[in-house]
Write the structure tokens for this entry.
Amino acid sequence: MQLEPLDSTLARTHPTFSPDILIGMHVSTNHSATNGPNTRDNKMSQKHRWSVILDAGSSGSRVYVYEYKTAEYVKEKDDTKELERLPKIKTKKKWNYKVHPGISTFGEKPELVGPDHLKDLIKFAEEIVPKDEIEDTPIFLLATAGMRLLPEYQRNAVLENVCTYLKRNSKFQLPDCDLHIQVIPGETEGLYGWIAANYLLGGFDKPEKNDHGKDHNTYGFLDMGGASAQIAFAPNATEAEKHANDLKLLRLRKANGEPMEYGVFVTTWLGFGANEARRRYVEHLLEASPEAHEVPDPCLPAGLMVKSSGEPIEPGSSEASGKKPHLIGTGAFAECLSSTFPLLEKNKPCDDPPCLLNGVHTPAIDFDVNHFVGVSEYWHTTHEVFAMAHKDRAYDFRSYQKQVSELCSRDWEDNEKDVAKEKWGHKVDEKTVEEVCFKASWLINMLHEGIGVPRVGIEQGDGSVGGHANKTNQMLDEAEDRGFLDPFQAVDKIDGTELSWTLGKMVLYASSQMPPAKDAMAVGFGSNIPGLKLPSDFQFPSGEHELLPSTSSGSGKESKDWHDRLLHSSYSRQVPGLIIFLLILAFAAYLLCGRERRTTMWHKVLTLTGHKPGSPRNKRRRAGPLTSKLFGNSEPAYDRVLEEAADPDEFELSDIHSEGRYSDSSTGSYDIPNRTGRTSGMATPSARGLSPDVARGSPKKGIFDNTSLSSAGSLPYGLGITPFDRGGLIVRAESKERLAPAPSSLGRSRTGSPRRSPLISPLKESVD
């Protein structure tokens, strides 16, 4: 079975915002309506599309390039068989490339992750993807356990630098860094692996050929890395109903747009990867023998001596001089199995039964229908040393344990000689042989004591040589027909395609690119909430605006789940920008409302905050020119000019209308009702500003004119002569001329307050 690309037809990510897409309304598959120019329409009818996925692991990063067919092309071919299946993905062995070390090593120097790490990966991908397709090819960087262990601030810094570098130095599509560049949880990694396994084994497209009984046709997935281990499976009907809230809701889409929906249980055990388990194991050994200089280790080949870290002991080191303890292998595999069993933490309390290990809830596994495939360490530990010459050999407990026991009990010098002779192949080095004893014991305990996989060859002996059956290469090639009916089988490739969680991510993304049939929901995964409403944690495959159907095709009504889309990821990121835009609008409106309105508003703000505008505290603070223009001036900018006092009766305020306001003309003219209606009490002169006679109510006549101006020099505040007093106008005009800017040589007493020029004599009132 040759894997051919069959995939996407949906509109590619496009920077143009579409309101219809935002609210989740059905969008026509006429791409000219959603993607703009006709050149885009021509490209959409092409045969293939591409995607690039970077697996950023703890030891290194590997780039995978995938190709798939567009649904339009399949429809043009009228290929009914392909339309009724998930989009088919194509990849090749030469389409992936790995660099070392992992991006987690850039935690303290995140600015170097681009030029020192990503550069070669991007260059490799650009050589695979056709040049005219690069701009339409999305790129993803998904990091796993290594990045999970970094402090949050370092993790964020690395991801931000990855995003910046890819945007500046690559033309691949990157519409949403939050979705395209992220550290994925172990559960997500396990779910992607489950998708990839069932995609390759035919669990999705050929259920009739993968009938495991009880209407069950999907496979379970096991993954073990260096730091964590994952399990993903679809429980049988009884367990699925009992533990519905514990399942992940997964939605896929066939090439013809029809939906596919599954309930999958996924969990991860952090610290249960091979390397972390070994670290915990050594800690227990050292704690059990605190005074020992040489600590026996049954999980190391006989006679091998290493540091507690697993590194060789060098002459002159602390271990060689006896200052630090070191390990010496005894090669007792049966004892090794017993010593690693406690690492399963089976004795931890189970708050939500049932639990498998470490107190983590897991629905009961029905091995009559749940058949598991294991990747990564499950494959390497069972095949690299013990079955490299028989890659098609399936795992069984009896034969595997026998092989491991024989290898580990051998003297280490004999193993070194076999490594030099390449007995196990040129890829197997001394480090691999050194570690395989512990890893094998850990794998056996995880499978059979932890997860509960039946021991094939003992519990389910089938009468073959040695009590087990060796699967031939032909049987593996026909896996979809045979159904992988063993409870567990370690795999690396199926039909020449690597079983990698990145393939599962690709299947999910390609599925989301199929135009939805009527009433088909969005592709992705989240909490198991049946119905049309998307759960709040629903994870979309990419940052592009996905086509979501309306409740009634062509009705123009909003989809029931538009609000979920609006609050999701790329849309929620627009909220800060919207807030900033509204603040700018508010500030512009504030500037346009006029100085007097600004002054009134500012006084109200001061009042609300407990500061009286006329208080001495505020008077001591002189407003600068810019502040005066923005907020107005709560006190006169210049000293009052006292003249001969006028009749006290002239100081009485007449009745005026409160809604009036003074004019702000450049000539300084005003009308009393308008001016007074906007004048606050704080601008009215107190008795301290009057002559003694006037303050006592003396009938002595004189002229008192308040010539104080605002900071902009517009109009006087407080009392003044009436508009009918022409003399008063003359006084004001001359006073205003006296306030003209003084020569620069004279300076200013303070900002906005000009000094009097000695060339101008004080104004004196003429005497008839």
Summary: The two ends are 120 Å apart (CA to CA). Residues 253 and 602 are 59 Å apart (CA to CA). The chain has 29 helices and 20 strands. The mean pLDDT is 74.
